[in-house]
Amino acid sequence: MTIYYSLTFLLLAAEMATFTLLVIPFPHPVRKRVFGFFSESPIIAKIAYGVKISFIFVGILFFDALQRMFRITAEADMAKSGQQGMGDVRTETSFAARKFYAQRNVYLTGFTLFLSLVLTRTFAISLELIHNQEEYIKLKKTGSSGDKDYDALENKYNTQLAEYNRLADKYNKLSGNKADKKKD
Fold first, then answer.
1. CB-side neighbour CA atoms (13 Å) of 83
2. Residues sharing a CB contact under 8 Å with residue 5, sequence separation 6 or more, in sequence order
3. Could you give the residue ranges of the DSSP H alpha helices within 24-41?
4. Which residue ranges make up each domain of the chain?
5. CA distance 95 to 83
6. Beta-carbon neighbour count of residue 35 at 10 Å?
7. Beta carbons within 10 angstroms of residue 18's beta carbon
8. CB 105, CB 68: distance < 8 Å
9. Where in the numbering of this chain does the BAP29/BAP31 transmembrane domain appear (predicted)?
10. Is the dihedral of CA 64, 69, 70, 76 positive or negative?
11. Strand ranges in 28-147 using DSSP code E only, listed in sequence order
């Protein structure tokens, strides 16, 4: 395997390890600190920038490997249909090996590109999850004090209602009106 496909394989292995770390169910405080570090660190931002540039090269390698695979497949099909030198076992083995290497390179670069998209989306979803958990914790704390506020407001309402009824009864006694009396 050439050096650039070896580097692509190392990038794929690093992506798989990173994906595994992203989906491990850490406790919320640990996950918050780790993702906070990843999203705010200038060193990680520079590394991510370099990795994005490397994905441009992996994309170029993908299209090159795809083109090479189609070309080798077409050559093998032409050789089989015309039987031009395909009777030799070494020639058939050579075509099979070239086809295998071309397909391997396509799969290697394709999986690397695909996993980069998955990693990006998984990281964004994880950050959104952390944000939503933080909002939930805030609302839960506010909700318990909100219950206290509700209870205080209900007590105040009951007190004012009782005072209103007392004053209304007193007014009715003084004015001679009864609340039960129907007007004709």
1. 1
2. 61, 105, 108, 109
3. 28-40
4. 3-140
5. 13
6. 18
7. 17
8. yes
9. 1-136
10. positive
11. none
C-alpha 69/C-alpha 100 separation (Å) is 9
Contacts of 116 (CB under 8 A, 6+ apart): 15, 51, 55
Strand runs labelled E in the chain: none
Closest by CA to 137, choosing from 32, 3, 65, 22, is: 32
List, for residues 8-66, the tens digit of each pLDDT value.
Answer: 999 999 999 999 988 998 898 899 998 888 889 999 899 989 989 999 999 999 999 99
User: Are residues 105 and 5 in contact, defined by beta-carbon separation less than 8 angstroms?
Assistant: yes
* Angstrom distances, CA of residue 183 to CA of 16, 34, 168: 84, 75, 18
CA gyration radius, the chain: 36
Residues 176, 182, 183, CA angle at the centre, nearest 5°? 85
- Residue in this structure with the two tokens 């001679």, named with its chain if needed: 176
* Distance separating alpha carbons of residues 41 and 36, to the nearest angstrom: 8
Report the alpha-carbon distance of residue 96 to residue 78 in Å, rounded: 14
Quick one: how many helices (H) and strands (E) in the chain? 4, 0
